[in-house]
Design goal:
The chain is an all-alpha fold. It has one domain (2-69). Helix content is 90%, strand content 0%. The protein is built from three helices and no strands. It has helices spanning 2-69, 71-81, 89-96. The longest helix has 68 residues, at 2-69. It is rod-shaped and about 125 Å long.
Length: 97
């Protein structure tokens, strides 16, 4: 009889241990998911900030590139440094004929 009461008590203790283990496991999973989502949001914000910085630098480089490619700049450099004369419409007619 006494062995039976010990077995029942052990069974109840085991059920309580399993129950609380499941509860703690669920709490751990929910907490871990929230922490993971927080870290992912931080990574997304960091990457968005980096992307914005890169887009800004690309925009500024495109402006600089367009300044370097401008016809007026090329014409000025050709005239000043290389002593070139700009071609006008009459010159093209002479070359064709």
């Amino acid at each position: 009889m006494r062995e039976r009461s010990i077995a029942v008590t052990l069974r109840k203790i085991f059920k309580l241990v399993v129950f609380f283990t499941i509860i703690f496991a669920l709490i751990f999973c929910v907490t871990w998911q929230n922490v993971h989502m927080y870290l992912l949001n931080n990574d997304i914000k960091r990457l968005a900030k980096k992307r914005n910085e890169l887009e800004k630098s690309l925009y500024l480089m495109n402006i600089e590139f367009s300044k370097l490619r401008s016809r007026e700049r090329i014409k000025r450099i050709g005239q000043e440094k290389l002593d070139m004369v700009p071609v006008i419409y009459k010159d093209i007619k002479l070359i064709v004929y």
